[in-house]
């Protein structure tokens, strides 16, 4: 698995030059509707975190305050490499805050 990740990481700069291989996805919804849980599950499907931690890790809530409050305060992003029909795509995944007080970060 580590070898595969190394190969994918090495391929990313080349993929960044081809806009046809890039997808930007923002997850937007009301507070506590599962945006970060969905992000965790997408990361697990990409092999970036374990399936057992998906939905519990809240990987993109890396700030101490976010972890303590169990909510996203700041936009968090991650790049995932996903293969579809034998073609690799870069998916820039953005997990956005759901609370109205942090809505300025979303726009």
Automatic annotation (TrEMBL):
Offer an example of a GO molecular function term for this protein.
GTPase activity
- What InterPro entries does this protein's entry cite? P-loop_NTPase, T_Tr_GTP-bd_dom
Signal peptide positions on this chain: none
All copies of domain Tr-type G, residue ranges: 20-107
Q: What do the Gene Ontology cellular component annotations say?
A: cytosol; ribonucleoprotein complex
Q: Name one Pfam family in it.
A: GTP_EFTU
Gene3D superfamilies from the xrefs? P-loop containing nucleotide triphosphate hydrolases
What PROSITE patterns does this protein map onto? G_TR_2
Protein name stated in the entry? Protein synthesis factor, GTP-binding domain protein
Q: What is the lineage of its organism?
A: unclassified sequences, metagenomes, ecological metagenomes
